[in-house]
Amino acid sequence: MANHVITATATMLEEMRNHYASDITGHLPAGALFVAKRSGCTITAYRTGKVLFQGKEAEQEAAKWMKESDQKEAPVPQPPLAAASAIGSDEVGTGDYFGPVVVAAAYVAKDQMDAITAMGIKDSKLLTDEAIRRLAPSLMNMIPNQTVILSNPMYNDWQRSGMPQTKIKALLHNEAIGKLVKQLSPIEPEAIIIDQFIERDLYFRYLENETNVVRDHVYCYPKAETVHVAVAAASIIARYVFLQEMERLSKEVGMTLPKGAGAQVDQAAANLIQTHGPAILEMCAKLHFANTEKAARIAKK
């Protein structure tokens, strides 16, 4: 059984309790605040702030909360890093049932920082889709950037092979960063900052069998968009490309595909099954999410 543990703030614990309200059970182990059972995953939140995810969907469920959690403290970056000419990278789509996984890498030089900041560039999660669509095209014209899109069929193939989502993300980040480093040559970034989804040593362990791995000046920080504006820029570009891909997929399947992994996603997937048959999900969804089983049950009603 897969286990994943994150550390949550008091505010986040309350958000989680509300999110899982319909799945909370009556039995509480010692020190627990609540226990919620979903298809493929049991979530146990403790008064210490630790949250344990257990089951075949543990990694995917925990990933929804990873970037909001107080992950293991990374060293506080020194001012020279925050002011460096740097590449930032971030990913979008790992918590969404529909749509691909997109990783973007963006390079912001020292002399561009003021202009980029003045545009209102910040973490894409703090911006509306409308704001993303307005900012991203100008941003992509201003700074060097590269994106990698992992299609749903390829994602499903990798996942069925037993590859964990953390390794999938490591491969995509390394690819996007590598493409941007090549684009920048002979300019060498002073730092490469990844929005942390895993500890740095494990990140490189996942890449040990890869031929081309970018290793120099690589840092992994939680909430890295607060460390360097290049990461915030990458998050906006990744989100923009993800939104474009969602629009393209929606046109292909003939209906608007919702984001996230909630009840409206279950219903949308059920509608697709009823209209096109279950095979349609292979090309537009991440099949190992619990939404697949839920949609199948709804489609039979």
TrEMBL record:
One of its GO terms (molecular function) is RNA-DNA hybrid ribonuclease activity. It is an enzyme of class 3 (hydrolase). A divalent metal cation binds at residues 90-91, 195. Residues 84-301 form the RNase H type-2 domain. The keyword Hydrolase applies. Keywords: Cytoplasm, Endonuclease, Hydrolase, Magnesium, Metal-binding, Nuclease. Its EC number is 3.1.26.4. GO terms for cellular component: cytoplasm; ribonuclease H2 complex. Manganese or magnesium. Binds 1 divalent metal ion per monomer in the absence of substrate. May bind a second metal ion after substrate binding. Pfam families: DUF3378, RNase_HII. Its cofactor is Mg(2+); Mn(2+). GO terms for biological process: DNA replication, removal of RNA primer; mismatch repair. It is found in: Cytoplasm. PROSITE patterns: RNASE_H_2. It catalyses: Endonucleolytic cleavage to 5'-phosphomonoester. NCBIfam families: rnhC (TIGR00716). Endonuclease that specifically degrades the RNA of RNA-DNA hybrids. Belongs to the RNase HII family. RnhC subfamily. This is Ribonuclease HIII. It comes from Parageobacillus galactosidasius.
